[in-house]
Amino acid sequence: MRSARSGLRTRLVVAFLLVAALSCGTTAALTYRAARNAILEQTQDTAVSHFRDQIQGLDLQLPVDPNSFQLRLQQIARQGKPRPWRVYAEYGSMRLSSSTSPTSSVITSELRRAARGAPRGSFQRVVGGGHSYLTVAVPAVFAPAPGAEARPTGLVLYAVMELDAEDANIRAMVVAARDGALPALAVALIPALLAARSVLRPVRDLRRAAHHVGEGRLDTRIQVKGGDELADLARTFNASAAALEHSVAELRAAEARARQFASDVSHELRTPLAGMLAVTEVLDEDAAHLDPDTAAAVRLISAETGKLAVLVEDLMEISRFDARAAGLHTDEVDVAETIRRTLLSRHWTDPAQVVTELPTGIRARLDPRRFDVVVANLVGNALRHGRPPVTVRLTTEFRAADLSSWLVTEVADRGPGIAPDVLPHVFDRFYKADRARTRSAGSGLGLAITLENVRLHGGTVRAANGPSGGAVFTVEIPLTGGEDTA
């Protein structure tokens, strides 16, 4: 739970910081783009405008004298704005410049073509040798007469200006944006943590309340604050918890009434049943002297009265478990001998019916009466619903995981086994795999009583199907000493 809570907090903080970073990045990108364009356009407009003015003010005599024209190019270059230029001229095959090199590698063919088709010239920003340049091309034109259309002379002048200063300003702007974004993200971490805390507090309250409800504290409620979705969730939880508390209270009351009813009925039936059993015993003795129909009716009444007596005793026993009035009276016993006595008292001594694998020398602290009930119920159930021979196997098991020893009692039959859909319910009270079978030899509580008796010993009982068929019931009881409890 703690890791899940930390994970949610981390996701909230990361999401908050991502939004802050995206906002900072978007703002910085838009600001950078606008500032960069402003810087470059200001430099570009100044350079292009001034260069055009310089070219329009030229007093040209064509063809030009290379030496004097080169001096003129150097003069134009020195007067360049916003900083000196390198100026190049192309006239036919003549190439002149204000520098030592007559040509420039940053003047592109695209710029040359644009200059020939545009009387006012053209410009281009290029990158070469790791530097940025502004290149401007302006053709020299003449007008045959005042007001006439200007015509190109064939002479084209180019200005090349490095943009290192502008690039430096742009890089400084990027660094400033980066250096400003990092502290902004650090500052954004504080409201992110506060927001995560405010969101997680009701979530933690809800988790704690749900845990309390899971423990059975159905009166748990959450304090509702505000009117947002989390507050609505808290109100919904409180309403659900109140409805659950009411429903569970009604169910518990109904269950208590049902258990009390079963207990009361069992006690009330016990006294008349004692008289009925005494009468049926007398009738059984005289049945041989009665006519066949009357004898059959007497034996039927005797048998059904015996079943009713077993049912009442089982109901009283299960009522004691429900009321938590059942206790253990343990003694150190020879387990194998205890199982033999259980089988002998029920007359299950025929090897064709019951086979035993009971090694001697296994001793444990058990409640002999309750362990007798466990073994008798499992063997009787196997004989009724499986096929003989039923095997009763006794072993011990040491578990290295927790250094504990366990007493293991296994009862297996040779029957068809237990259907997969029945297995989860074999220990349920009054459960019948065949709903059409309304009557059986048992009370329907034998396995439920077995489960309760095993639990009382701190053990477990489980049902399964054997690998070669047949049902297998396994009882595991810890081999630890204990005191009598009541």
From TrEMBL:
GO molecular function (one): kinase activity
Keyword Phosphoprotein part of the UniProt annotation: yes
PROSITE patterns xref list: HAMP (PS50885), HIS_KIN (PS50109), PROKAR_LIPOPROTEIN (PS51257)
SUPFAM superfamilies cross-referenced by the UniProt entry: ATPase domain of HSP90 chaperone/DNA topoisomerase II/histidine kinase, HAMP domain-like, Homodimeric domain of signal transducing histidine kinase
Annotated Pfam families: HAMP, HATPase_c, HisKA
Keywords: Kinase, Membrane, Phosphoprotein, Signal, Transferase, Transmembrane, Transmembrane helix, Two-component regulatory system
Keyword Cytoplasm on entry: no
Catalytic activity from the UniProt record: ATP + protein L-histidine = ADP + protein N-phospho-L-histidine
Enzyme class: transferase
Domain Histidine kinase: 264-481
The organism's place on the tree of life at top rank: Bacteria
Compartment(s) of residence: Cell membrane
InterPro entries: HAMP_dom, HATPase_C_sf, HATPase_dom, His_kinase_dom, HisK_dim/P_dom, HisK_dim/P_sf, Sig_transdc_His_kin-like_C, TCS_sensor_his_kinase
Ranges of residues in domain HAMP: 197-249
Signal sequence range: 1-28
EC number: 2.7.13.3
PANTHER family associated with the record: SENSOR HISTIDINE KINASE TRCS (PTHR45436:SF5), SENSOR HISTIDINE KINASE YKOH (PTHR45436)
Protein's name according to its UniProt entry: histidine kinase
Organismal lineage: Bacteria, Bacillati, Actinomycetota, Actinomycetes, Kitasatosporales
